[in-house]
Amino acid sequence: MRRSLRFAFVALLLALMPVSSAVASPKTFQRFEAHVLGSAGTNAKPKPVELDTRPYFDFGVAGGPTNSGGLNSGSTLEVPFATVFSTIYLDKALTTATGVFPGCNIHVALDTPDKCPAGSRVDTPSSASGLVRSTNDSGGKYVLKTNLEVRIFVLSTDSRDRPAHDMLGLRVVTPLATAIVEGQLGPATGADKKLYGQKMRFTIPTGLIVPTDGLVSQLLDFDTGIKRAVYKGTPLIGLRSCPASKKLSIGYRGEYSIKPHLAEQTHWRVDEVSNRIDVKVPCH
After folding, report:
1. DSSP 3-state assignment of 121?
2. Is 8 inside a domain boundary?
3. 38: number of Cβ within 10 Å
4. Does 242 map to a domain?
5. How many CB atoms are closer than 10 A to CB 104?
6. 8 Å CB contact between 87 and 252
7. Would you state the pLDDT for residue 23?
């Protein structure tokens, strides 16, 4: 009898415990697509190409902002998180030449982008979206689904007003904030350099992570591209000879902070890091 009562008591406790709808870490839902548009040149004379990249999450928002019926899915069920760093890796057959192009001062790109020098804006038509979520959510709900306006510039200065010759700036406009995502170009390092020649590491600024305390901006889909641009005969993104496989490798890795708070803005916690996602694209 006592044993039956004990089992009943345990069952009652389990029934009364709050159940989190979080089902996995953000990296479980991370996806990536890429395209390189254009024909190959030679190792001595690369040809300009367009580079399109799309980091996104497996998500569903059918239930709406206050859904409690289990209709939302994927990363929407995860506890609120933000992408704080993202890195794109470029095949060794691809070249970059941001230092040749006219750059825009980061403050001009932010405040009066139409005054940036001709040739410094290098984006293709893009689409991006995200969720605004409460840090108190356990998962499955959101406050607002937003569309983002994105423009890409070659920058001449960074956020510390230092000269920059190897930096891209993504000007992102949301209903809650306008900010510049700085993308630092550099050589691939460590194990990544076995497959890749260069990487672009993007740092997401405070306004796009926590627009105000208690809210988190959770990226859903970020589909952008760098156009086939040439300045003084040098391509911004160039393609040397194709590899023997006729395939190029493009990679992505995301870093996430779970329930970030505004007080952490000087040093965002990285709670999860995705595996590098490698995709193969045709080389012509």
Report:
1. strand
2. no
3. 18
4. yes
5. 24
6. yes
7. 52
Look at the chain and report how many structural domains it folds into: 1
What value does the CA radius of gyration of the chain take, rounded to a whole number of Å?
22
> CA 93, 99, 100: angle at the middle one, nearest 5?
90
Whole-angstrom distance, CA of residue 77 vs CA of residue 18: 15
Amino acid in position 73: S
The CA distance from 239 to 50, in Å, is 10
Q: What is the pLDDT of residue 266?
A: 67
In a domain, 15, yes or no: no
pLDDT at 68: 67
**pLDDT tens per residue across span 228-284:** 999 999 999 999 999 999 999 999 999 999 999 887 766 788 999 999 999 999 999
Instruction: With a cut of 90, say whether residue 71 has pLDDT above it.
Output: no
User: Are 17 and 24 contacting, i.e. CB atoms less than 8 angstroms apart?
Assistant: no
Listing DSSP states for 16-63 in one string gives HS------S-GGGGEEEEEEEES----SSSPEE-EEEEEEEE-EE-TT
3-state secondary structure of 122: coil
Give the domain range for residue 69: 20-275
Encoded tokens for 101: 């192009």
Average pLDDT, stretch 31-57?
98
Q: So what's the pLDDT on residue 137?
A: 87
Name the CA dihedral angle for 198, 204, 205, 208, rounded to a multiple of 10 degrees. 150
Predicted structure pTM score: 0.90
In a domain, 124, yes or no: yes
d(CA 139, CA 79): 4
| CB proximity list for 7: less than 8 A, separation 6 or greater | none
User: Which residue is listed with tokens 């979080």?
Assistant: 22
Token pair, residue 189, equals 């390092």
